[in-house]
Design a protein that fits this description.
CATH class: Alpha Beta
CATH superfamily: Divalent-metal-dependent TIM barrel enzymes
Mean pLDDT: 94
Strand content: 15-25%
Number of strands: 10
Shape: globular
Number of helices: 9
Largest sheet: 8 strands, parallel, barrel
Structural class: alpha/beta
Strand order of the largest sheet: 1-2-3-4-5-6-7-10
Order of helices and strands: EHEHEHEHEHEHHEEEHEH
Helix content: 25-40%
């Protein structure tokens, strides 16, 4: 795994690299826009060129996370607004040299899972059609399944991706906190979870990890991140993940407060040991 963290871009996009350097990050995730506002911030073209040049120079995998307000399963005005915002995210990320945009599929808000999945797939097809020739991937994140949120099972994600097609443009992000909250018993049945992932989705679709422990118990359907080893996944899961040869070279980022990132990355590295990082 290429270990890193979600880094702040406050003060300018390239500040993310400064933070990552302090953390000895081997991968990075950022927000290209404020994650909790609709308003689009117009960045200086020079800042964009500087960031893209730094991505190319460093050859570090960089991910973006889309706005938490986007709901691709929504109907009506919110659905249309979400589609436009998602395409804008893809356009920004492509210009910045970002490898993939990680997104939550959204919530069906009472319409039912099947209807919600159809709307997500339609929105993703629409987005791909408007970004033909782009390299940036659309990376669906495994969710905790809180409320009516979609994407808490491998089967739901498979149904979405099959309906989208375009396998070269899509992928999956495995969030360890969400997996536990969704009921995947990584601590008690690590290999069983990964056999199911391989059978339903295939490891070739796995392009990123979010490494977070879960404050809430197995199957709680509540998304609350904890420090590595301080939650219901536990040390053993992360020890196995960072040593698992199937995941060698895959970007894996922490989504924890900046103040605790260094000690959590240190723990993960101590379990992984020194490895030669392969370019992907």
């Amino acid at each position: 795994m290429r270990l890193g963290a979600h880094e702040s871009v406050a003060g300018g996009l390239v500040r993310a690299f400064e933070h990552a350097d302090r953390h000895l990050g081997e991968s990075i995730q950022i927000f290209t826009q404020n994650g909790s506002r609709w308003a689009e911030f117009r960045r200086d073209p020079g800042e964009i060129r500087e960031f893209a040049a730094e991505v190319a120079r460093r050859q570090v995998p960089v991910l973006a996370h889309d706005s938490y307000l986007i709901n691709l399963a929504a109907r009506g005005d919110l659905g249309q607004k979400s589609r436009r915002a998602f395409v804008a995210e893809l356009e920004r990320s492509e210009t910045l040299g970002i490898r993939g945009v990680v997104f939550h599929p959204g919530a069906h808000v009472g319409a039912g899972s099947a209807a919600g999945i159809r709307r997500v797939a339609a929105a993703l097809r629409w987005a791909i059609a408007r970004t033909r020739g782009y390299r940036v991937k659309l990376v669906v994140e495994l969710t905790a399944g809180q409320g009516t949120y979609l994407g808490a099972t491998f089967e739901e994600i498979r149904t979405m991706l099959d309906a989208v097609g375009s396998p070269a443009r899509t992928g999956v992000c495995f969030d360890t906190c969400h997996a536990v909250a969704a009921g995947y018993d990584l601590a008690g049945d690590y290999e069983g979870v990964w056999r199911r992932f391989e059978r339903v989705l295939g490891l070739d679709r796995l392009v990123a990890f979010h490494l977070n422990d879960s404050k809430r118990e197995l199957g709680s359907r509540v998304d609350r991140h904890a420090e590595i080893g301080a939650g219901h996944a536990g040390d053993g899961v992360f020890r196995r993940l960072v040593r698992d040869p199937r995941f060698r070279g895959i970007p894996a980022v922490l989504e924890l407060p900046a103040s605790v990132v260094p000690r959590n990355l240190d723990r993960l590295r101590s379990w992984r040991g020194r490895v030669k990082i392969e370019r992907r």
